[in-house]
Amino acid sequence: MPVAFAQPAQAQSDNSGVLRVALVQEIDHLNPFTASFASSTMVGRFAWEFLTLPSAEDATPTGGIAESWEPSPDGLTWTFKIRPGMKWSDDQPITAADAAFTFNRIMDDEKAAEANGSYVENFESVTAPDESTLVIKIKERQASMTALDVPIVPEHIWSGIEDMADPRTDSVEVVGVGSGPFLITEYRPNELVRLKANPGYWRGKSKVEELQFLKFDNSEAAVNALRNGEVDFVNRLTQAQFDTLKNTDDVETNQANGRRYRELLMNPGAQNIERQPIGDGHPALRDVRVRKAIAKAIDPQVLVDRVLGGYGELPGGLVPPIYDNFHYTPADDVKYTFDPDAAKRELDAAGYREGPGGIRVGPDGRKLEFRLTARSSEDYGQRATDYIAGWLKDVGIGVKKNLVSDNEVDETTSSGHYDLALSGWGTNPDPDYILAKQTCASLPASSGSSSSNAFFCDEEYDRLYAQQAAETDEAKRGEYARQAQARYYDQVPSLVLDYDNALEAYRSDRFTNFQRQPVEDGQIMEQTGYWGFYNAEPVAGGGDSGGGLSAGAWVGIGAGALVIVAGAATVLLRRRASTEDRE
Amino acid sequence: MTTSTTSTTGTNAVADLDERRSGTSTPRFLLGKIGGALASLVLVVVLGFLLFRMIPGDPVATMTRDRPTSPQQLADLRERLGVDKPLWQQFVDYFGGLLRGDLGESYSFSRPVATMIGERLWPTILLVGTATVLAVILGLWLGVRAAWRRNSAFDRVQTGIALTLWSVPQFWLGLILLIATQGLFPSRGMRSADAPEHFFGQALDIAWHLTLPCLTLLAVIYAQYMLVMRSSLLEEMGAEYLTTARAKGLRDDLVRRRHAVPNALLPTVTLVFLQFGMVVSGTVTVEAVFSWPGLGQLTYQALRGPDLPLLQGVFIVLAGSVIVMNLLAEVLYRVLDPRVRAT
User: Fold this and answer.
1) Cβ partners under 8 Å of residue A202, min gap 6
2) How many angstroms separate the Cα of A504 from the Cα of each of A219, A225, A232, A250?
3) Are residues A462 and A439 in contact, defined by beta-carbon separation less than 8 angstroms?
4) ∠ Cα A197 A202 A206 (to 5°)
5) B contacts of A169 (beta carbons < 8 Å)
6) Residues whose CB falls within 8 Å of the CB of residue A418, separated by 6 or more in sequence, listed in order
7) Measured between alpha carbons, how far is residue B293 from residues A193, A234, B202 in Å?
8) Interatomic CA distance for residues B322 and B281, integer angstroms
9) Residue B146 CB contacts under 8 Å (≥ 6 apart), including other chains
């Protein structure tokens, strides 16, 4: 018996090289062709090297499987040179054929396109003329060729798989062969994903011997587990959780600039791709002066301070400041500053006069009263709507709050059945995706199928977008991207309200040197890369995990107590039986 | 369906029940009950299908939220999942699949729903089963004690505690226990990442993980057993046969165990079965607090999608468990209570 008890205890205290990470989101697949959840793609980033990936320093493209790359003068042919001498974890060489196989499979197989299909949409052909050369021909110029977020898989493993949706593609036998800093060695759905450091990794073996992603359904429990030393890393913290952990011994917090923006959608007249109106948005919002008035009536500083508790940044364009080469900050003379009087003047000029109850009425006699849709599940939604409703009322705009489920928010916004709505998106180092969402081409084919819910369609914006998309000179591209955002900002189909900080915490007594991306103030987990955990190091003699007695000891005590109780019960029952017999 | 059985402790109600069931032979009774259960199950399937179609939100849009997706990809996905078909066609497909034992394939995990539910069933049964057994033992024991010493300090304190725990939200209680025990027990899951290989070690590891979720569930559900046992025993205690037993000179202790308790047990036994069905669906919060990989957690995941096939599958299993337990309770009542059987 004592041997059995000792084992779990031993396992817990000898694992200084084991980094245990709380995972609050589910894993849908490990198969990199179908993995879509953020947590699953994160695991994929550790297991398979990319062609190129965003650097840790400033998220600009850096080499992965490709050592160098070169576009042709017309920008339509990209040649990638594969890094020599790289090997899969089963000792097979990594060649251009593997990369060509990966892209071709996504292009040819509908199921394989599920997660990363959008990256190959503009591809004409992908070939591997020799072992070290990969040639990608594209249909139109595309600057984001160095930001293809597609894990490259070994052809000798994946070519044998007929059906990409086969559950076998999630098994360790298939996903275990990789090229990244860690290799997947165990997968228990909804419980854990275990990865071991890849000894043959080309940048060198990680000092973290093992990575464990442990599934938590409840973020409070995850925070508690960090305090107790059951896990070493927790992210997606709430403000309150972050504040408590700030003052906890042996725990270090990281307040990082986030990749997400929050916005107030203002239905500018939702329409489908054939330019037919859809939804039931308030017609007044089609007037850009009304949208500008709303922008001037809102005070983002208050939202950041009071609603985000200071854990956010003030707004500008769609790309957050974390990617400063593409981020747009409006100049002072065009910036919407909190100015209720200016907002009122704007509404007066647009012809909205004050009516009964202080609510303005339009020339058509319709009241300036908007529905404000937000998520009831989010603290932000509940509190920000209060502030916004108050501010708008001050300038003569009535607001009816409509707090509903996440799904209902998705449905009403994507089908144009809203006036104002709180929304938000995550962004990538390459701005193409987030900017493309605002083009006329992203308007929905039918109601409810939109990938953009701001329903923006503007020739000037489309022109600037196309320019940045085709520009391969990084500096010039940044300039065009900023101009496109400036146009968006000026037309305000939606107003960016703030960028949330990413709040994380870790056991500083166990691990150190977590690398942020970008280096100054970026996040550690859920990066667009693997730098955060790859560069971490165990602290020498690093703390024992867990407070109090070890697991084994408690199991022992529990079992002991059970035996005593059972024994006592037996004795008692026997005594009773005998007394009864006597009677 | 069978709620009447729990309230038939009064003599009048029992008489009613006898009258209604008089003349029913056992096979006919069984057939009738099973038929009724099957009908309920079909109703559950139809209602479930329609209800979940009314939930707002496009599953495809939700699945692809926040990642680059082209309109072509969305259309392909819609076609693959079959959500582009008319509603009646979807229902026919679904019902046909059900008859073949096929619950469909989860949207977000693209795995067979039946397999996913199968994996999650036993952790839930382990959790609910253990908690129910302990709750029954504790509840009955405390209920008998409290009734026998009615209005004593013990009775008042125990009833007070039970009522308080019964009204406490499980979610809150679980978190409090988690924080209060300060890491003595694991915060999550059913197994340690590094549990020992051999069976004994694994069993201990699971037991260690089971402690807190089981305690939370136990604290909330034992109260019902206790209160029902207490009140039904109190009713029995007024009965004349007990006075007769005492008059024969039997010891108080024996009167209680041999005469009063067995009669008072009847409503409690049926309650246990009825409750077991409910508890399976009621573990959602406990499983969410402790990340217990059971059906409750699966329900939560399915709802967030919404992953329609998964949601429907879980719904059928949960509703089915209530229906089956109801059926068992009715049959058992007939077996246990001669008054119901006598015709």
Assistant:
1) A49, A83, A85, A86, A179
2) 12, 14, 11, 14
3) yes
4) 30
5) none
6) A265, A267, A279, A281, A371, A373, A412
7) 14, 20, 16
8) 9
9) B154, B155, B158, B159, B226, B230
**Gap between the Cα atoms of A343 and B327, Å rounded:** 67
Q: Which of B77, B84, B107, B110 to mutate to test the interface with A (most CBs of A within 10 A)?
A: B110
* Nearest-Cα residue of chain B relative to residue A216: B291
What size, in residues, is chain A?
583
Helix H, strand E, coil C: the string for A395-423 is: CCCEEEEEEECHHHHHHHHHCCCCCEEEE
SS3 B199: helix
A30 three-state secondary structure: coil
The whole-model pTM stands at: 0.84
What is the SS3 assignment for B98?
helix
Q: What is the pLDDT of residues A266-280, one digit of tens each?
A: 999 999 888 899 999
As a whole number of Å, the end-to-end CA separation of chain A is 42
Cβ contacts from A onto B, under 8 A: 186
Q: Answer whether A548 sits within 8 Å of B189, measured CB to CB.
A: no
Q: Judging by DSSP bridges, how do beta strands A233-234 and A369-375 pair with one another?
A: unpaired
Q: What is the end-to-end Cα distance of chain B in Å, rounded?
A: 22
How far is B1 from A195, CA to CA, in rounded Å? 51
Chain segment A448-468, per-residue pLDDT in tens: 555 667 899 999 999 999 999
Residues sharing a CB contact under 8 Å with residue A189, sequence separation 6 or more, in sequence order: A27, B119
Asked if the Cβ–Cβ distance from A218 to B288 is below 8 Å, we say yes
How close does chain B come to A408, measured CA to CA in Å? 5
Bridging pattern class, strands A251-257 and A260-266: unpaired
Top pLDDT among B59 and A182 is at A182
Report the distance separating Cα A411 and Cα A450, nearest Å: 10
Give residue A473's pLDDT band: very low, low, confident or very high (50, 70, 90).
confident
| B247 to chain A, closest Cα gap in Å | 16
**A102: Cβ–Cβ under 8 A, 6 or more apart, which residues?**
A150, A151, A152, A153, A155, A158
- The beta-carbon neighbor of A4 closest among B72, B108, B200 is B200
Non-local CB neighbours of A462 within 8 Å, separated by 6+ positions: A439, A440, A441
- pLDDT tens for each residue of A209-268: 999 999 998 889 999 999 999 999 999 999 999 999 999 999 999 999 998 999 999 999
- Minimal Cβ distance to B111: which of A8, A118, A167: A167
For residue range B63-87, list pLDDT tens digits in order: 776 666 677 777 777 887 777 888 8
Whole-angstrom distance, CA of residue B100 vs CA of residue B112: 13
In chain A, what residues touch B110 (CB-CB under 8 Å)? 29, 34, 165
Residues of A in contact with B178 (CB under 8 A): 220-221, 224
**B7 vs chain A: nearest CA distance in angstroms?**
32
For residue A476, give both structure tokens: 């010039």
Please state which architecture CATH assigns to domain B24-56+103-341: Orthogonal Bundle (1.10)
Distance between CA atoms of A350 and A283, rounded to whole angstroms?
13
Which letter does DSSP use for residue A93 in this model? B
The span from the CA of A391 to the CA of A264, in Å, is 14
Check B291 against A216: CB less than 8 A apart: yes
